Amino acid sequence: MDIDKNKCVGCGNCHIICTMGVISLDEDGKSVVNQDECVECSTCYRVLRNENYPSWFVRAIRKALTVFNLGYLADVDICPTGALTPPELVWPRVLRAQFSNPTVVHPGTGVPGRGTDEIKSNDVTGRLRKGEAGLVVEIGRPELGAFFRDIEKVAMALAPLEPVFEPENPVTHLIADRKTGRMKEEVLDEKVLSAIIELKTDMEKIPAFLAALEKVQHEIDTVISVGVASRCLDDGAIPHEEWVRKAGYALSPNGKTNLGLGRPRFREDEP
Ligand code: SF4
Ligand code: SF4
After folding, report:
1. How do residues 20-39 score in pLDDT, each as one tens digit?
2. Does 2-87 carry CATH code 3.10.180.10?
3. Which residues of 230-256 are buried (b: 16+ CB within 10 A; e: fewer)?
4. If 194 and its partner were Cys, which of 55, 94, 140, 145 is the partner (CB 3.0–4.6 Å)?
């Protein structure tokens, strides 16, 4: 995000709205965005109403009010002068918006956001079959965001376990070598609100994956949350529960259960 310094009056309203807390007052009393840390989510631009007052007008009101010992405070949900200016984003910086701005459709998946709907629609797609486990590893949420150099460390920690990285996932598109997990060099310094590595593996490998994540979490400068999925057994039991427990973890009580009301586009006995 850019701030037009000719318009900004330094009211500070955008500072508290910024999801990454990366807008601050510059020495000239106007606001500035730390471009390295901004994830181009556009929350500041979308949430604050643009009053579009000329900056000279706001400054004149302020000056006039000081005569009466009064101050001018803009309503907290506006940018009084419309100084916030979304930039034209080019590769690789455009990745920030594709992963962080929910109104931007990712060109690789055709849906907005940083993941796919594969696990949620598993009853239709049959991506996860009996004996298989799906892992979703979200990096950067809540609050911290993540650079791809940290996301790469996670991918490289998991790759030796020979997962099947979800082919439709936007992070997978950025992995240059799926055997090592190494990502495209040019994306490493880009930062996003969060990114999700999605993969499939055999059920009994769950403890190895969780152990690898436990180890790599100390090497990255952000947070990780992990989801595990599998197909329920005929009696309704959750097969991955046992393997998660073997790894020393417990499932959180807010898991999602897909009831399987969709019409399957696969047959269990076909690959
Ligand atoms: S809300 Fe607008 S005028 Fe106020 S500090 Fe931010 S960019 Fe400047
Ligand atoms: S685009 Fe997002 S991260 Fe960047 S300054 Fe605005 S709210 Fe903050």
Report:
1. 999 999 999 999 999 999 99
2. no
3. bbeeeeeebbbeebbeeeeeeeeeeee
4. 140
| 185-195: pLDDT as tens digits | 999 999 999 99
Q: Is 31 in the pocket of ligand 1 (CB under 6 A)?
A: yes
For ligand 2, atom 6: residue with the closest CA: 44
Rounded Cα gap, residues 35 and 239, in angstroms? 45
Ligand 1 atom closest to Cα of residue 48 = 1
Assess whether the region 2-87 and the region 104-246 belong to the same CATH fold. yes
Site to probe by mutation for ligand 1, drawn from 44, 55, 79 as the one with most ligand atoms within 8 Å of Cβ, is 79
Fold of 104-246: Alpha-Beta Plaits (3.30.70)
What is the model's pTM? Answer: 0.91
Residue 178: C-alpha distances to residues 37, 99, 172, 173 (Å): 27, 20, 8, 10
